[in-house]
Amino acid sequence: MGPFDAFWLATTLQLASPLIFAASGEMMAERAGILNIGLEGMMLVGAFAAYWVTLVTGNPWLGVLAGLGGGLLLAALMAVLSVQLRSDQIVVGVGLNILALGVTNFAFRQFLGGNQALIHRFSPLSFPVLSNIPVVGDALFRQIPLVDLGFVAALLAWFVLYRTRLGLSLRAAGELPAAADTAGSSVSVLRWVGTLVAGALAGVGGSFLSISLGIFVQGMTGGRGFLAIAAVIFGRWRPLGTVLACLLFGGVDALQLSLQGRPAVPREVWLVALVPLVIVALRTSSWRAPSRQSRRMLVFALVALAGLAFFLFPPSVSLPSQLWTTAPYVLSLVVMAGAIGRHGMPSALSIPYRRDRVE
């Protein structure tokens, strides 16, 4: 299997889990009309709160609760500014990210003296029968509990959005807030709920980072909040697509870790690296126009032939580790190039709602 072995699969799940937590909450916030750019800061505050509480108490579950609370606190500030005061959501989110970075750096030096102390981490949760499956058993069914809870959170997000009246109201607040208001739902309350859920799950995602590593590093989120936002957009604001996008980003991140110590790029990587290009080629134009359909098929054929050629005759190329580190973010740019558009996007996303200005 080359680099795509059981270790890569297990690492993919571990690296995708924080994104799944954050993206599931962000999806609910955006479906309610709130573009939460401050997701990165909420994850960072959650990571520090979880580390500090776990260090003091020795209980990682209390650390997760603290991370959830830290994300909620920052989300409440986001809701006050963007929902109640109707400030620009992008500006507020950027400000919260800067605030979170400054506060966590100060608290890390003030309370911990900048010293790294290893905290108690979760033990892997093993499923008796499934974990004995050859090759993939340990990778899929022997993970820390937070990995399983990430998929539970995504499933609950789907259930709430599509199987409850609250979910219907949340989606109405992001699509037609005036209609939701007319139906008797408070748009402000619904957007508060979406923002707080996003902050809580982002805090849990941040706590995953610090507790799974056992340490806290200043700025340790490393742009994962923005990757979670990209996953929501690439997933078309739907739970399944969002989870698959998180797994894609996690898989690329896990791949770059295994490739840093290899002398040359394996042939399997050349083949897989062309998949995002195929996705972009299939999404950049409409299938309805015959000329564009022919152009798509030509691009797809050329990309497939290039992938086959690189697989059969892989070039002996060694790339620096710094380049591999940027792979998840480069991928996010590539897939976003084929995903950006209004298809699936809530029509009232990032637009403040004013009852007195409804036309």
Provide the residue-averaged pLDDT: 84
Q: What shape does the CA trace take?
A: globular
First-last Cα distance: 59 Å
Say how many strands there are.
2
Continuous helix count: 16
Strand order of the largest sheet: 1-2
What's the SSE pattern?
HHHHEHEHHHHHHHHHHH
Ranges where pLDDT stays below 50 over 5 or more residues in a row are none
Summing up helix and strand content along with how strands pair, one would put the structural category as: mainly alpha
Fraction of residues in H or I helices: 55-70%
Structure write-up:
By secondary structure, this protein is mainly α. It has helices spanning 6-31, 39-57, 60-84, 89-112, 137-141, 145-163, 165-175, 177-182, 187-213, 224-234, 239-259, 267-273, 275-283, 290-312, 321-325, 327-339, and strands at 125-126, 142-143. The mean pLDDT is 84. The chain has a two-stranded antiparallel sheet. The protein has 16 helices and two strands. It has a domain at 6-238. α1 runs antiparallel to α11 (239-259) and α7 crosses α9 (187-213).
